[in-house]
Amino acid sequence: AAMRDEVEAALAAAVPETDPPHADLPWLRDFAPFPIPGRLRAAMRHSLLAGGKRLRPALTLAAFDACRAAGDSFDRDPNGPFVVEPVWRENAMRAAVAVELVHTYSLIHDDLPCMDDDSLRRGRPTCHVAFDEATALLAGDALLTLAFQILSRLHPHISVGACIDELASAAGAAGMVGGQVEDLAAEGDPHSVGSGKQLEVIHRAKTGALIAAASALGGHVAGAPTAVVNALRSYGANLGLAFQIADDLLDLSASSAALGKTAGKDVAAGKLTYPALYGEKGSRRRAEDLIAQAIDGLEPLGAAADPLRALARYAVDRDR
Ligand code: GRG
Questions:
Q1: Contact at 8 Å (CB) between 312 and 235?
Q2: Cα gap 177→168, rounded to integer Å
Q3: Which of 99, 104, 206 is the best mutation target for the ligand 1 pocket, counting ligand atoms within 8 Å of the beta carbon and taking the most?
Q4: Cα–Cα distance measured from residue 62 to residue 77, given in angstroms and rounded to the nearest whole number
Q5: Average pLDDT over residues 42-66
Q6: Domains of the chain: which residue ranges?
Q7: Ligand 1 mean position to 75 CA, how many Å?
Q8: ipTM of this model?
Q9: Does the UniProt entry include the keyword Transferase (predicted)?
């Protein structure tokens, strides 16, 4: 909640209502060789500024803060570049924005008729319902592209290439997109997934990879050592899978409450879910185990990682 206003302002500035972009955010200046067409801009803003939970940007910022607080104990390069503090923090916000842009693109595309065919998202009409399918598809494309443009403009006191690689690997064919393909392939034939192990592989890729990258990016932009970045990535991966299980459980209880049925929307759509495979209790236990693992992995960051511990709990205790 403390980070939300700052994140919302940075997201709004990333796709500003009018040109030129906000003068206080010089990293967004000179973006466009051509003006963004009004309808595309409106579609991008419609989905981006619809008030999501902003979990992923919060993870990037909290991971950054934890690394900076624990930073004195890091084995830094004594000849490393001179660093001005506000620049580091600005990089953290840019990375946080980039992750949320990728997440929003994935939701727009996931809602399209060729995928989940949903008409509501974040409490408002989905992008293709509010605009049209072609505009929604292109708004997603534009958000995805903008994410990497923003990362490419990070202040180069850290490895910009490593940040781009982190997000691209998580979002691409071996991450979120691949997981989505496997998930769609299993639709209508849940038993084709075969086992809990396979379901876990799908969800680790579809949902977990981006959450893992969000956490790792906080380490990258803080200039943390590789071991700490790796620890943050595996914290995020465990949290991400627990988050997906919690999502399955929320879907189940929302559908049960609304329809008086036991099957959730995903089960009704023929998707294999955690509760369908392990039952409600078993799923909750698995989510709790993953959160315990995520929290254990934060050991190297000590007390500085307390907000990350709280975010891990939030991922499974949330009610939406
Ligand atoms: C279309 C390439 C492509 C990928 C789509 C992540 C994803 C892949 C689709 C989302 C489907 C879904 C509802 C998954 C359950 C977990 C999840 C990612 C929920 C949505 O994220 P939240 O809860 O959403 O963080 P807000 O709106 O709060 O940002």
A1: yes
A2: 11
A3: 206
A4: 23
A5: 96
A6: 4-317
A7: 37
A8: 0.94
A9: yes
